[in-house]
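User: I'll paste a sequence; please echo it back and then give the predicted structure.

Assistant: Echoing your sequence first, then the prediction.
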Amino acid sequence: MSLYSEKVLEHFRNPRNVGIIEDANGIGEIGDPSCGDFLRVFIKVQDDRIVDVKYQIRGCPAAIACASVMTELAMGKHIEDALFLQDEDVVFALEGLPEYKLHCSVLSISALKKALVDYYERVLRSR
């Protein structure tokens, strides 16, 4: 029996939205790229909606699954609604995580929120 739900395993084996958005207007990074889990999230926003989300990750199966499902949760959302996404939303969408892997859901949502903050800062600088 696996420690992970079928949903976690599916997102780990077939991660969605992996990659880079060259013309991203928001980028968020969390973790340490030289060791441990690291996640970089790219967002593309048009008309106050997230129209694309991609990521690069180095991490365990749970971290990969959390990043994958986070992109599905964020895609198409109004940027203000995306700010209200929580790590619990990721855990629920994955049908649970072992308690010692809950930090992976925090990692994915934190990187998304950093990308949103970066987007807002870019908008303010361009005014």
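The CA atoms of residues 67 and 108 lie 5 Å apart. The chain has a mean pLDDT of 95.
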